[in-house]
């Protein structure tokens, strides 16, 4: 059954006439058809998170806030019985962050009964049924039926009081409908934005330039609860569990698979499993991003709010307590693909290799063998002079990382950022909900510094025939909090709630 989040205290706003009531519902012969009305407070009306250190919010695009369809469910507070979905009017009034339906017919009301009111906006065809554990088997955020399609973003209720049918049913007419009150809604997805942290996204590391080119998501959850729920430990049977409850600085948003989620990848659209990932995620070229959204309100006056562009949308993914369960195989990550140029990395042929020793560029194998550097000489002392006989693991033990040119003669390094939701500011201790993706949040990413060479192989689209695998590939059971800091994240919690992440590799 579905329960509510907050009590609504706002009044309904202006109404419009209804032209297609007969097409909205098939009356149940066992009930009496009466008219009903509900209002929705949209995310753009200024909802805020209780954990926010500032009042900064992202209003969002008009295409993210529009109501194209609306479904109402009633739960009888005495019997806990949920009504069948009630399609509300799609020709109501939307203005100033609110949407008010026209009066619509229903047979779900009984005189004297009290109901909780649940609303789903833009439910679409991707997800069906009325149970609150909704599974998305195949999400494409740019296709018809998506939960994040322009003008059809799925939103679910986060606020409603109880309402009582206190009049004789025949008195609830189109001109005098049953008032189901006002329900707040939030988007069912989170959003990721990106901007360049330095000019052209080009970072200098030793005798090379590392330029970020594209980005992809890993461990994208394939299921979520319609209505956000919380508890003290992220479990449905946990203390202070509330369906639709408010997230605080110390509690957890409950994941749909809170009790069974493992590193097997069953719960993700693309994921890490075993020693290598699986999933075939698609990278987005950063130069292709063009849709800006920098309409922030509030926050620090010194915060640079310009330059962010919308990248993609993502489903909610949280991990229950203990905090040590926040690991690479479960948390949603962002993978940056960066091209390496300069010096030994220029003018390569397919298969040419360049060697790095302790973050210093040495060159090809001939340069390694001929190096006069004491550290290089010591490192190769235990290696075979025949380059082909040295495995990635052997090279790693000696301190080397090997980068191989692709068919176009380009070298790439990969960087993984495990998305932080509530950064506790302590890299030595994992915090509650520190690594997560939560609906109706905007995560604004910007790589501000790269200080080391990244992984030499694609961590989400590995070549199964590659004889040169990444010796330092992240293991699914590795904790998200890494003492080898690839990135430092400044988190500004800005509904959408915006989180600004300045990343240093």
Ordered list of secondary-structure elements with their pairings:
Blueprint: E1 34-41, E2 57-58, H1 62-65, E3 70-76, E4 86-87, E5 93-95, E6 98-100, E7 104-106, E8 114-121, E9 133-135, E10 148-149, E11 152-153, E12 155-159, E13 162-164, E14 178-187, E15 189-194, E16 202-205, E17 208-218, E18 223-225, E19 229-231, E20 242-243, E21 252-253, E22 271-273, E23 276-278, E24 284-285, E25 296-297, E26 309-315, E27 333-341, E28 353-357, E29 360-363, H2 365-370, H3 374-380, H4 392-398, E30 400-404, E31 411-418, E32 441-449, E33 490-493, E34 497-504
Parallel strand pairs: 1-14, 15-32, 32-34
Antiparallel strand pairs: 1-6, 1-7, 2-25, 3-4, 3-8, 5-6, 8-12, 8-13, 9-18, 10-11, 12-14, 15-26, 16-17, 17-24, 17-27, 19-20, 19-21, 22-23, 27-31, 28-29, 28-30, 33-34
């Amino acid at each position: 059954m579905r329960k509510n989040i907050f009590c609504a205290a706002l009044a309904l706003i202006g109404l419009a006439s209804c032209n297609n009531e007969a097409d909205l519902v098939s009356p149940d012969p066992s009930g009496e058809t009466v008219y009903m009305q509900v209002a929705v407070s949209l995310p753009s009306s200024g909802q805020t998170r209780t954990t926010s250190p500032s009042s900064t919010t992202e209003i969002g695009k008009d295409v993210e806030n529009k109501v194209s369809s609306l479904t109402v469910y009633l739960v009888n507070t005495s019997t806990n019985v949920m009504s069948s979905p009630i399609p509300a009017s799609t020709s109501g009034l939307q203005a100033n962050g609110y949407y008010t339906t026209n009066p619509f017919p229903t047979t779900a009301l009984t005189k004297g009964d009290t109901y909780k009111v649940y609303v789903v906006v833009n439910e679409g065809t991707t997800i069906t049924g009325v149970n609150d554990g909704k599974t998305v088997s195949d999400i494409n955020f740019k296709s018809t039926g998506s939960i994040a399609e322009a003008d059809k973003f799925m939103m679910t209720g986060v606020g409603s009081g109880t309402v009582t049918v206190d009049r004789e049913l025949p008195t609830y007419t189109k001109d005098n409908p049953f008032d189901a009150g006002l329900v707040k809604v939030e988007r069912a997805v989170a959003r990721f934005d990106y901007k360049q942290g330095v000019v052209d996204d080009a970072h200098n590391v030793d005798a090379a330039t590392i330029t970020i080119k594209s980005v992809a998501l890993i461990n994208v959850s394939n299921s979520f609860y319609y209505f956000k729920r919380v508890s003290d430990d992220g479990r449905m049977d946990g203390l202070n569990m509330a369906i639709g409850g408010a997230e605080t600085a110390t509690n957890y948003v409950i994941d749909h698979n809170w009790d069974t989620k493992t590193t097997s990848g069953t719960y993700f659209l693309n994921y890490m499993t075993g020693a290598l990932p699986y999933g075939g995620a698609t990278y987005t070229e950063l130069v292709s991003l063009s849709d800006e959204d920098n309409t922030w309100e509030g926050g620090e006056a010194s915060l640079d709010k310009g330059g962010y562009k919308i990248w993609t949308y993502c489903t909610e993914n949280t991990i229950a307590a203990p905090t040590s369960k926040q690991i690479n195989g479960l948390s949603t990550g962002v993978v940056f693909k960066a091209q390496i140029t300069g010096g030994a990395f220029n003018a390569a042929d397919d298969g040419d290799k360049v060697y790095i020793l302790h973050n210093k560029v040495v060159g090809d194998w001939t340069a390694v063998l001929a190096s006069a550097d004491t550290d290089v000489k010591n490192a190769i002392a235990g290696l075979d002079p025949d380059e082909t006989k040295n495995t990635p693991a052997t090279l790693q033990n000696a301190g080397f990382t090997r980068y191989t040119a692709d068919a176009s003669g380009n070298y790439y390094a990969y960087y993984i950022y495990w998305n932080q939701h509530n950064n506790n500011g302590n890299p030595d201790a994992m915090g509650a909900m520190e690594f997560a993706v939560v609906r109706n949040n905007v995560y604004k990413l910007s790589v501000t510094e790269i200080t080391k060479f990244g992984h030499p192989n694609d961590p989400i689209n590995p070549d199964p025939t590659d004889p040169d695998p990444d010796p330092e590939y992240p293991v699914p059971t590795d904790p998200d909090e890494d003492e080898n800091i690839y990135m430092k994240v400044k988190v500004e919690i800005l509904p959408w709630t915006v989180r600004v992440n300045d990343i240093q590799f």
